[in-house]
Structure formats: structure tokens, C-alpha cells
Amino acid sequence: MPLTISRILHAGYLFDCDGTAVAFDPIFENPFSRNCHAFPDVAFDHRQIADLKLAAVFISHFHDDHCSLDSLNLLDRQTPIYLYCIFDELFSMIGDLGFQHVHRLGIDMPVSVGPFEVIPRKALDADVDSMFHVKAAGLNVLNVVDSWIDPLALPALAQCAPWDMVLWPFQTMRELAVIAPSRAAAGPAELPPEWLDQLRALQPRYIVPSSCQFVQEAWSWYNHAMFPISYRQFQQEVEAALPESRVLRLNPSVSFVLDRTALTAAPPLRWVLPVGNQDVDYQYDQHAVPPGTGEIARRFAPLSTEQSAIALDFCRSGLLEKYEEMELPEDSFFQQPRLWQLSTYDHAGAVEHFRYRIHGDRIERVGLGDEPLSWSTEIPVCKIYAALALGESLTSMYMRINDRVFDAGTEAELESADIVDDPLIRCLFNDTVAAYQAAQLRRLQAAPSR
Q: Which InterPro entries does this entry report, sorted A to Z (predicted)?
């Protein structure tokens, strides 16, 4: 009774054992999550995907690069969906899409599906993520997805050592560094030592560099600034630290049969279609110079008059209402009076400035003047619309924070400020759950029936 493991994309896998197939975090889109482009490039045969007979789908968390309604929409509505999420909204959305069997996963609560036993394990941020312990054919596979292992959970996981395979998230993404590049320290292009310590505790026979299989648009400077670790480097460091383990790269569609003694190649997934060269790797450049926000904004299509109005009305009034609805953290940079400037850039690179005086939970618009600023935010205006109407996430917003030199007193205070304390980030993303999936559901429900 062999176990076949196939890569779909990013954190997506298909496990097949004795004719029973289960999918984990399946994404059947490229690009996905609006502008995550598969790396290496792939396409999908949606007709074949619609014919799949999956015994279950397991979703590790609600982020849109793991839980996409566009991808789930391709599947038979009788497919059981098992989701780890603390928010009720997403379960309702999947039910509204027509799925009849939507189940909530609990940490250390096993789920049996034919020859499989799938056990969600505790990740470091248990309010968001989970990991999957997969048992089948007498084997133990740990799918870490893209979370960090909770140190308190590691001893129990180590009791299963040696693991037969570990799917390990191999990238240390610098998603915050790229929104404040002039203030970010150069990122070390090396694996965190705690990763190697954890892998030593797990003693896996095989380690798959997992989760990060995407880049941004072809022109994006993020492609050389966000991903410090290459596949090659991951393999070199891990195999040097764990000489008894083998690092195995699984590109999209690639399949292997795993048993207790060996790993052998299997036919690729027919419905995942590799495009072009698959032997690609990340090229990190810690000295990459980011283009200006106006230049980036010119890369995007113009908004319609209605879309532009939605984004700019938010800057004029909606943002103020949203800000005052939220509770400001006690250690916020904005507990003291601050003057904040938000600069939006249109498709022609033209800029419009908005200034706000903020003190604690209070905010008001003020006119442009000579008073020194305390905080600045730049963004293509189309990205404000995308966040409001389409649920686009922070990772692809091309926001630029505090890309200037302030007075000496402000600079000293900014050294201890949190970048995500930015008022626009808070107004767009705080207290927002599954906005991307909600936008997908609205679109899918408005479309003609399948």
C-alpha cells in the first residue's frame, strides 16, 4: 500500500494511498492571491480538476494563498472540507459556495479518511496557522505548511523521530522590510539556526523545501528583495547540518512514491501543466534599489472613475471613520500627537497628498503646510481600491512607509516604532477577516451557474 505525494503549487499537495486521494491547501490558479505568480511557472487543466474524486481537502489556515474559493469552486460540492480557522465567517463562505460537509479542525484532534489519519498540530501562531501530521501506509509525514513550530509542541513531534518526510517552509520572507526599505536592515541570506535545531529534533529521512513557490510580477523589485533563501542554499545548509537527511525539491506536478525504505519517481499530475524552464531559483540582492512609488504606480492599469472615487473617498473620509472605530495599542507611536501624510499615485504617476493630525484614537484631516511630518505613507491608488473591494493583502500592496528623513526627535522615536502601526495598514487590515474570500464569493455568486 504505497503512499504517493505530489506537489500542486505553493503549500498545495496531493496525497494518494490505496486509491484514496486527499489534498492539502490546494491552489489551482496562476497567478493566485491576485499577483503571486507560480515559480516555476505552471498552468492548470481545470476540466480535469473538476473530475477529481477527492476524499477530503484539508486547509491549514485562512490566508488567501492557502484557502481560495476560486480553487475550491472547481471541486465537487460533496467533497469534505476540513479547515483550521478560529473565525466562523470563512466556514459560512465555503458553505455558501455550496459545499455540504465543512468541518472545523482542532489541534491534536485526528481525522480519519480511508487509510489516512490527519492530525492538526500546534503552530507558533495558533490563532492563525496549523500544521498537519499525516499518517498513512505506516509512515509519518509532517507538513509544516508556512508556519513556525511552537517550541512547546516540538518535544511531542520529536517523539515520532525519525520522520519519514517533512515538508518544510524554506523562505524567510521579508514582507515588512520591502514596505520600509530605507529603514530595513540587510536580511541575512541564511537559514535561522532554530530551523536546523528543529529539523535535527525531527530527524527526517526526506525534507522538501515547501510553501514559497511564487514571485510577484516580472518587473517587480520584490523578486530580488523579498526572498533571501534559494533552493540551492537550503539544500546545502540542511544537508550539511543533517547528513543523514536528503533534501528533495518537488516542483509543481512532480510525484514520488514513499515507502519505508525508498523514494521512487511516479508519474506527474496530469492536470498541473509545467510551463517553460522548471529549474529556476531565487536570486536575492540585498542591495536592490527600489523604484519610486510613482514609477511602480505607472505599471498598473488606470482605475475607472467609479473605482477611483471609492479609493479617494476612503482617503478623504472613510479612513477617518475606520481609524476612530479601532482601539489603538497602548504602545502605539500615535499615542503622542503626530502629523501623518498619505500620498497616493495614479496610473500616470501623479501624486495626491492627504494630511492627517493624529493623537491617540482621534484623527482629523488638515491642509498641506510647512509643519514637519512625523510619519509618511506612499501607495498606488489602485492598491487602496484593491484592498477595499478585492481583498488584496498587504504583501502585494507596494506600500512605502517613512521613506524620508524626519527631524532628529522624530527619527529617534521611530527607532522603536512598529511599521505595522502605520495608520493605513491598520485601517485597511485590522479587524478584517477573509476579505479576499468575501470578494471572491461575491464575484462567484454573481457569475452564471456552472
A: RibonucZ/Hydroxyglut_hydro
